[in-house]
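Treating backbone geometry as a discrete language has practical consequences that deserve illustration. No coordinates are needed to read the tokens, only the vocabulary itself. For completeness, the protein is quoted in full, as a sequence line and a line of structure tokens:
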Amino acid sequence: MAQRTRTALIVYAHQSPGSFNAALRDSAVQELTDQGFRVTVSDLYAMTFRANATRDDISGDLRNCTLFQYGEETMHAWMEGRLSDDIVTEQRKVEEAELIIFQFPLYWFSVPAIMKGWMDRVLTQGFAFSMDKMYNHGIFKDKKAMLSFTTGATQTMFRPDGLNGDINVSLWPLQNGTLHFCGFQVLAPQIFWSPAHCPPPVRAAMLDGWRARLKGLLAEKPLTFAPCELFDLSFQGGFSLWPKVKEDQESQPYGLTTGHHLGKPLPPDNQTTAPPAEAPGAKDS
């Protein structure tokens, strides 16, 4: 029987083909291809991918013409095959990929607008998540995803005592609120600190380190998040931690995760490093 071809998608957002982000993209394409992957790149700027989520994303009649609700309308459009062609094309890429890498420069502590638009428009309800298929029970629980990005700031500026604050806090909305919410196993981010202010040998070392990591990327343990089983998933229970879980956490030195800190110190590097052992009160998802 022929071996199944592994697939990867790189969602890429940078305007310049001469950028360090472009070099990182090209290194990933080459290394993954050498490993036998079929790699697809969605070059969002080159594609002039539309970032704004509008009525134009849906063909045919709306279910509610009085009040346009994008999430509700695109869910039904996805179910009925009425989403715009550019969204459908990207969704097919996601379906085929077992690994997705988001490559971008950090803009205002987040992704560039064009990449945020990709997330808003492509990860529609029904396709990427539902109310009973989210987080560790999510639709993409068999896929891996990660952020790979450059910063303008130095690493010391993104520490808990640095000017910009803890990078783990900055990454929580993207890694938990978007990727993990859709079920992805989230690999630790690859962060390239301030390459624009680094000499060429340092940038070359960054590229070498990225290529080296890619060789064993799929064998890495993903980041840990609080699984749904720790929460009372009902409106009556407020979708909050079960009382017994909170009681068990009282004796722990750190909070459960970056987002579920419970008023305690944040677990060190919760959003940047996969722990070698199971985190207290959490498990792989």
Q: What stands out?
A: Residues 27 and 115 are 20 Å apart (CA to CA). The chain has two domains: 7-222, 224-285. Strands lie at 7-12, 38-43, 99-105, 144-150, 185-186, 190-192. The radius of gyration is 20 Å.
